[in-house]
Design a protein that fits this description.
Layout (H helix, E strand, L loop, with lengths): L1 H19 L4 H4 L8 H5 L46 E5 L3 E5 L2 E8 L2 E8 L2 E8 L4 E6 L3 E10 L4 E7 L1
Antiparallel strand pairs: 1-8, 2-3, 3-4, 4-5, 6-7, 7-8
């Protein structure tokens, strides 16, 4: 009786390998003629497989500045002091602190990515990163919200617009 159990177990294991597709002709002793016709036909492409057309953009896209090219002029230049009321447009070419209300943002640009690190009364509150065309919004004093838009960015600089409402 134990011999029969071993044979049944061996058949179950071999059957499982064959179903799972893990065996080869050498493993099971099956020949090409014994394979099911559906297995050899499954590699044929279906009639519905046609080359797909590339998707067309929903809106026309404007060319972005080159990674090292010039950026548009910022309304307030590099003057971060213009941002104290929460409304300004500045050019960031090196890490700067932008004071808004009773907190500030540490702003840096590297590899066309803008990083805003938010501090409030000296406590770190969080950070966000985004690229050209990106936006970040955060709460400020007096239940207001400040939004920062990346107007343009290149390899190591960005024009950012701050709006507080």
């Amino acid at each position: 009786m134990p011999v029969r159990v071993k044979r049944v177990a061996a058949v179950v294991v071999v059957g499982a390998l064959a179903v799972g597709g893990c065996s080869s002709d050498k493993d099971t002793g099956a020949s090409e003629a014994k394979r099911s016709p559906s297995a050899s036909q499954s590699s044929k492409p279906s009639k519905s497989a046609e080359p797909s057309k590339p998707a067309e953009p929903a809106e026309p896209t404007s060319p972005s500045p080159s990674p090292t090219g010039p950026l548009p002029k910022a309304k307030d230049g590099k003057n971060t002091g213009a941002c104290t009321d929460g409304n300004c447009e500045i050019l960031v070419t090196k890490p700067v602190d932008v004071v808004i209300g009773d907190g500030f943002l540490h702003v840096s640009v590297a590899v066309s990515t803008i990083t805003l690190m938010r501090f409030d009364s000296g406590d770190f509150l969080g950070y966000v990163t985004f690229g050209e065309g990106g936006q970040a919004t955060f709460p400020t004093a007096d239940d207001k919200r400040t939004t920062v838009d990346a107007i343009a960015a290149n390899k190591d600089s960005a024009v950012l617009k701050f709006r507080t409402k």
